[in-house]
Specification:
About 30% of the residues lie in helices and about 20% in strands. The protein has a five-stranded mixed beta sheet with strand order 4-3-2-5-6, covered by helices on one side. The chain has a two-stranded parallel ribbon with strand order 1-7. The relative contact order is 0.20. The chain is elongated and about 105 Å long. The chain is of the alpha/beta class and about 140 residues long. The chain has a domain of about 90 residues: 2-Layer Sandwich (Nucleotidyltransferase, domain 5). Helix 2 packs parallel to helix 3.
């Protein structure tokens, strides 16, 4: 008696779980992705060291050309015409979140009087913590 297979199984690659793997990869990248809210290009001044900046800080950037950009830390930065608008912006942010930290990101070649006007505007808006961003080694313990 001669036995012969009636059906030859073709080799296949199981693809049933590919959708699950793709979904998990998408979730992983969405959870680990961080976006930078202030992409203003400035040359930061040098310092000896700097403190770690809190994650949800509001940003005020001043470029060498005098352009001022603001961000509340959750949205992309937008240009404002002058320092007076920084005061109204900061007052609005402080009204919604009184403990929000502010970071001033000023170019090395910006005159100090411009940075001083921005700091005065933040003080008038009753900002509690102001950080000046610099280029140096970062240490833990912000607010020290």
């Amino acid at each position: 008696m001669k036995l012969r297979a009636e059906h030859n199984a073709e080799p296949v690659i199981p693809t049933a779980s590919m959708a699950d793997i793709a979904f998990l990869l998408i979730v992983f990248f969405m959870v680990t992705f961080t976006s930078e809210v202030d992409r203003t290009q400035v040359t930061l001044p040098n310092t000896g060291l700097r403190y770690e900046i809190p994650a949800q800080s509001a940003y005020i950037s001043v470029t060498e050309a005098g352009l001022i950009r603001v961000s509340n830390g959750e949205e992309m930065s937008v240009s404002v015409p002058g320092v007076e608008d920084v005061l109204s912006f900061a007052a609005q942010v402080v009204a919604t979140d009184p403990s929000r930290d502010f970071v001033i990101k000023a170019d090395t070649n910006v005159p100090y009087r411009t940075v001083d006007k921005v700091i005065d505007a933040l003080k008038q808006a009753r900002v509690k913590n102001i950080f000046l961003l610099s280029r140096a080694k970062t240490v833990d313990g912000a607010g020290g």
